[in-house]
Amino acid sequence: MEFDWAGSTAFVIDRDTGEKLKACIFVPTLPCSQLSYAEATTSMNLPSWITVHHQ
């Protein structure tokens, strides 16, 4: 499996507050099948890295 944070930071809108929030996109890919998964987090810190690897 290959994985990393992808490209530039994206943004999402909080539905409750209308606030524009930073979204870092994490993308793991299985190289032989080319299957990918994407998940947004609010940062690229260690707790986020651990969270996206344990779901």
Q: In terms of topology, how is this protein built?
A:
Layout: E1 2-13, E2 20-30, E3 35-36, E4 39-41, H1 46-53
Antiparallel strand pairs: 1-2, 2-3, 2-4
Main attributes of the structure:
55 residues, 1 helix
Task: Describe the fold and architecture.
There is one protein chain. The longest helix has 8 residues. This protein has one domain. The chain is elongated. It is mainly beta and 55 residues long. It has 1 helix and 4 strands, in the order E-E-E-E-H. The model has no long low-confidence stretch (mean pLDDT 92). Strand 1 and strand 2 form a beta hairpin. Strands 1, 2, 3 and 4 form a 4-stranded antiparallel β-sheet that branches.
